[in-house]
Amino acid sequence: MKHWKKSVCLLLSAVIMFTYAEPAYAVTNESIRKKEEEIAAAKKEVSSLKSNLTDVEALKKELEQSKNDLAAYVVQLDNELSGIQAKIEQYNTLITEKEEQIVETTEELNEAVKQQEEQYESMKQRIKFMYEKGDTFYLELLFSSDGFSDMANKADYIEALSQYDKNKLDEYVETKEMVQLCKEKLEAEKEVLDEAKVAVEAEEANVSALISQKEEQIVSVSSDISTKEAAIKEYEAMIAQENAEIAALEKAVAEEKARLEAEQARVYNGGVFAWPCPSYKRISDEYGNRIHPILGTQQFHNGLDMAAPGGSPILAAYDGDVVAAAYNGSMGNYIMIDHGSGLYTIYMHCSALYVSKGQTVSKGQKIAAVGSTGRSTGNHLHFSVRLNGSYVSPWNYLK
Question: Could you write out the DSSP letters of every residue in 130-178?
Fold first, then answer.
């Protein structure tokens, strides 16, 4: 019995001495299968990105049919531009997600490589021990048995130790496979990221191409009008349509306010407006009387045109309630905000709207994105201010 205990202690000491490092996380058939599915999904994403790019030439041919009706042409083109802009936003979101996933996968790969290296070192030590001891280690245990029962017990220990070695070898093989899969997933995610960036560039080029075509068509139609008087009438009718829609909105708000108690009505407290287009490059058209760029005659410009890249943010100039967030053939996608005391701000030609009618917004809140929808020949924000039913200079509130 004394020899048996000594042998068992020797065996257990050997097992403890050469126990393999426990992995930081378990690699299983399920985790390997999941990684393979993730790689397949990433490859599918790349294929989808390549096949979903806008066929801008096909769009141009389709738009040719509506060129004789400028209003219909502008509306149809704006619908196409909105669709492309939505794609760009989705691609930008995908780029952000993939950059985060690449960081996670890199950490996962580093952890798997570290685990593989630790398992490899443990296996080398174990193999060295077994080489040095050979079969004599197990034979000593068996020959030192006090009887058949003692020998059977020791044989069970030997079998358990052999099975332990086999399990650890299997774990090493699985970890090695996981390392390879992590590398493949990382490459697949990088490919998705690169393809998404290419897609964004391609779609932004498509937007620019369509806006250029729109500019040419607006200028062409304006140039084709038989007389300058007719051109002026057409322009003035467009502005009148805008003013009528804005005035109707103001009237609706006034009627609603009349229904509310006086203490509930919003009141403008005289604060300075936030700059509504923080990414602007320049003021491309000032407020007030100016020479119209197409008509060549003096016309009143009821706001500030702030030239900025398409998709750049538009901010609410001040606290208020959104009374309109819609599309108009002339103004394009636009927003109108009630600041109280008869004061309103209007944001025209947006590529995307992020707020809706009835929503309360705060000064500096992102409400839309710069675009070229409606009667616009390039990306910019047309920013107007109305007080008690009339347009006033935005500079009165921006300085």
Answer: HHHHTTHHHHHHHHT-SSHHHHHHHHHHHHHHHHHHHHHHHHHHHHHHH
pLDDT of residue 279: 81
The rounded distance, in Å, linking the Cα atoms of 8 and 157 is 8
Residue 191 has a CB neighbour count (10 Å cut-off) of 16
354 token code pair: 């992020």
The pair of structure tokens assigned to 70 is 């400028």
Query: Which of 64-73's residues contact partners 24+ apart within 8 Å by CB, and which partners?
Result: 67/217, 70/217, 70/218, 70/221, 71/329, 73/217
Please, are residues 19 and 119 in contact by the beta-carbon 8 Å criterion?
no
Instruction: State residue 126's pLDDT score.
Output: 65
For residue 392, what pLDDT is reported? 94
Distance CA(324)–CA(335), nearest Å, equals: 5
Low-confidence ranges of the chain (pLDDT < 50): 1-21, 24, 226-227, 262-263
CB 153 within 8 A of CB 62: no
Provide the token pair at 184: 């493949």
Contacts of 262 (CB under 8 A, 6+ apart): none
For residue 288, give the 3-state DSSP assignment: strand
Which residues are CB-contacts of 175 (< 8 A; sequence separation ≥ 6)?
A: 23, 27, 112, 115, 116, 119
Q: How far apart are the first and last CA of the chain?
A: 98
**What rounded mean pLDDT belongs to the chain?**
75
Residue carrying the six token digits 């060129």 = 67
CA distance 224 to 15: 94
Task: Compute how many other C-beta atoms are within 10 angstroms of the C-beta atom of residue 173.
Answer: 12
- At residue 342, what is the residue type? G
Q: Is the separation of the CB atoms in 304 and 287 below 8 Å?
A: yes
DSSP 70: H
Q: Exposure of 242 by Cβ count < 10 A (0-12 exposed, 13-18 middle, 19+ buried)?
A: buried
264 DSSP assignment? G
CA distances from 329 to 96, 195, 345 (A): 34, 35, 19
